[in-house]
Amino acid sequence: MRNFPVNSLLDHLSRVPLDIPFGPQPDFGPSPGPFIDTGPCNPIYIPPLDRHFRYSCMNFARSQASPRKSDCNPRARKEPREQMNMLTAFIDASQVYGSTLKENRRIRLYRHGMLQVTPLDLLPNDKNSTCVKDGPGDYCFLAGEMRVNEHPSLSTLHTIFHRLHNQMALGLFELNPNWSDEKVSMSHVITFGHTLIPSKFTVGREKIRLFRMFNRPRFVLRDDGRSIGKFCSGLMEDHVQRYDRFIVNDLSDLLFQDRDNISMDLASLNIQRARDHGLPGYNEYREVCGMHRIKNFEQFYREDPERAVIFRRVYDHVDDIDLFPAGVSERSLPGAVVGSTFACIISQQFRNLKFGDRYWYENQNRPMAFTPGKGT
């Protein structure tokens, strides 16, 4: 199951600013029916008699749009709405070191290029975070990315990278004792998965429900920091769910459940966020990836009758089908986890990340690379 925290860590290379606070919120009142809103709040309305939720809508804050020319000049050509990324655009370990100088300064020790740790070699205290503190000894973790406290397995991976940095920094300082703290510190800076996540995690001899650990660092803090090793062992031993269209209830019903039992649905959030960002529908991506468009539900039924029956209950036309539910319900390619559409998107994305990054370690003539033997 080790791909779950890794997927989360990669996913946290981007973070869009929201127009209003995002998270579980009290009921907003009865649903007004068909809902179209261009404002910052675009709640997901919940139908009556839902199998879990007893309130009428789920909080959803729209992503802030980046400035457009038409905002300043009404005569300028209209441009599509685009979202801002508050983080960096590369796989650059900004989750470890932060995406801004201010974030980086908060976690540095300013000695031998090391990052701050507690006496138990755990992540330092973030006094500004709002994780759930169940006991007097609990505190929220500080890392290069603010979502470090979302789940203990993610906190564990952050801790491992944190420790790895300090180990490498000390090694570099021993080889180059004349290097300054700044030079040592900077010399070695280095979401389909939701259907794979199980409802229970092995931590030592325990099996703990996923939803009980959201935003609760106490599961890492207990046992004098030895829980890091227990989480690592559990992540290596536990099996992921089979890749399919189903998501465990801990994510579809109990996501980020608070003390008032207000929770969220991850699948609904994924679909709504794609609509908020203006992502095209499933058919558009099929065409971009070199596959034929599905023209009607009859054709869909001949190719995949089980999916066709389900989507026909929800959508009026095949062009309305959203990317996320259609993508996760595709049959896996031979020897692969995902189906053809997601395989196409993922491969193109990682190709762009590799060849669009001048610092990528496999690219020739990259700047600031170690010379042969420098780091040995």
Overview of the structural elements:
This protein is mainly alpha-helical and about 375 residues long. It has a domain at about 5-15 and about 85-255: Myeloperoxidase, subunit C. It is built from 15 helices and four strands. Strands 1-2 form a two-stranded antiparallel ribbon. Strands 3-4 form a two-stranded antiparallel ribbon. It is globular and about 70 Å long. The protein starts with a helix and ends in a 21-residue tail after the last helix. Residues about 25-35 have low confidence and may be disordered.
User: Structural class of the helices, strands and pairings?
Assistant: mainly alpha
In helices, the fraction of residues equals 25-40%
Radius of gyration: 23 Å
Largest sheet: 2 strands, antiparallel
- Annotated CATH architecture of the domain at 3-16 and 83-257: Orthogonal Bundle
For CATH, the homologous superfamily of the domain at 3-16 and 83-257 is named as Haem peroxidase domain superfamily, animal type
Count of alpha and pi helical runs: 15
- Sheet with most strands: strand arrangement: 1-2
Question: Count of DSSP E strands?
Answer: 4
Mean pLDDT: 79
User: What's the CATH topology name of the domain at 3-16 and 83-257?
Assistant: Myeloperoxidase, subunit C
Terminal-residue CA separation = 33 Å
Strand content: under 5%
* SSE order, one letter for each helix or strand: HEEHHHHHEEHHHHHHHHH
Segments where pLDDT lies below 50 for 5+ residues?
26-37
